[in-house]
Amino acid sequence: MNISIREALESLGLSQEAISLISGVNPSTGSILETGYDESIKEEYTLDNRNLYRITEGMVNLPLAFYETFTTPEPSLYYNIPNDSLGSIDYRTGHFVEGIYQDVNDNRVYLKYRTQQDRQNMMDVFDFVVCTIPFSLLRTLEIKPYFSNPKMQSILEFNYVNAQKTIFLCNQRFWEANTYYGNIVGGISYTDLPIQSIVYPSDHNFCQGESTCSPDEPGVLVASYSYNQNATRVGNQEEYDRVEFVKREVEEVHGVPSGFLDPIVERDKTVIWDNEPNFRGAFAYALPGQNQRFSYVMTLPEYNNKVFFAGEHISNKHGWIQGALQTGKYAANNLAYYAKQ
């Protein structure tokens, strides 16, 4: 828990040249060599990358399921709970929290927020709050009085990794064509280039040989998915320069001439998580010693058990939706317990 990935490799007697080779073959690890070794072990020991689940008809159905449950008068997902016992939800989108306060007299929690539409500041009062705001963003909110010193220190220090993803809408799936540069259906190309990795769509895995799975049909390619400094150095170029840079590197990986992708790529989109106003970092990933120092205090409620915390950053599965779901259930159970006191 107190050594970095690099230090763990060095302790095995590996030279810097060998570590450099590992970084090129496995750039996902190579880009975070200075983070805590325990972060990597926690994923490998429980075989996280070997036990993955796909949501039928797309990832978008996860937030939609929450939304439909919140807004449906008679949700069918709560099988044994009467509808009149579920309460009601006032679901508000486009409301950005800017401050968290506690009134010492009534022991309730006040949230200051602004609306996306008119940007006016407003205040509401709550008996309990579940805070899922990433600590990278929570650091910029006004908190009065401060949370406990250990919690404030974890909000200040806990490490977040940047990530960048650039996707191309291609008018043909050149990577699936029966050529020297193709025959790739699904999977990832790992590289030692700044783009780090190329992720190929896997939908044609389920219909190979059928006319509906022609490489001539359009497809979306994750042309670059990178972490940490690679993400910053690729993502923070001017838009035109970034797209041209990613095109040329994808062409190099596939061994095609420069300019090959120009007539194929019709649209592009880049997300840089450090620059996203509601995240300001892709995911929590501890530096050496940080899990030992902060992982427990990050889970503790604040304001006399009125504010609870959830999210992937609170969990022991940083960067995974599973961690967010786990801590959400944990926070809800804790809230229910203290509400009965």
Summarize it.
The protein has 341 residues and is of the alpha+beta class. The chain is 30% helix and 20% strand.
Secondary structure layout plus pairing:
Elements: H1 5-11, H2 16-25, H3 27-30, H4 37-45, H5 61-71, E1 95-102, E2 109-115, E3 121-126, E4 129-131, H6 135-138, E5 142-144, H7 149-157, E6 160-161, E7 163-170, E8 187-190, E9 197-200, E10 219-227, H8 228-235, H9 239-254, E11 265-272, E12 283-284, H10 290-294, E13 307-309, H11 321-339
Parallel strand pairs: 1-5, 4-13
Antiparallel strand pairs: 1-2, 2-3, 6-12, 7-10, 7-11, 8-9
Structure in words:
This protein has 341 residues and is of the alpha+beta class. It has helices at 5-11, 16-25, 27-30, 37-45, 61-71, 135-138, 149-157, 228-235, 239-254, 290-294, 321-339, and strands at 95-102, 109-115, 121-126, 129-131, 142-144, 160-161, 163-170, 187-190, 197-200, 219-227, 265-272, 283-284, 307-309. A hairpin with a 6-residue loop joins strand 1 and strand 2. It is globular, with a radius of gyration of 23 Å.
Key terms for this structure?
30% helix, 3-stranded antiparallel β-sheet, 13 strands, alpha+beta, globular, single chain, 341 residues, 4-stranded mixed β-sheet, 20% strand
Number of DSSP strand runs: 13
What does the average pLDDT come to?
92
Structural class: alpha+beta
- Gap between N and C termini, in Å? 37 Å
State the low-pLDDT regions, or none.
none
The secondary-structure element order is HHHHHEEEEHEHEEEEEHHEEHEH
Helix-residue proportion: 25-40%
Give the spatial strand order of the biggest sheet.
3-2-1-5
Please describe the biggest sheet, giving its number of strands, its sense, and whether it closes into a barrel. 4 strands, mixed
Instruction: Kindly provide the radius of gyration, computed on alpha-carbon positions and rounded to a whole number of angstroms.
Output: 23 Å
Question: Which term fits the overall shape?
Answer: globular
Number of helices: 11
Estimate the strand proportion. 15-25%
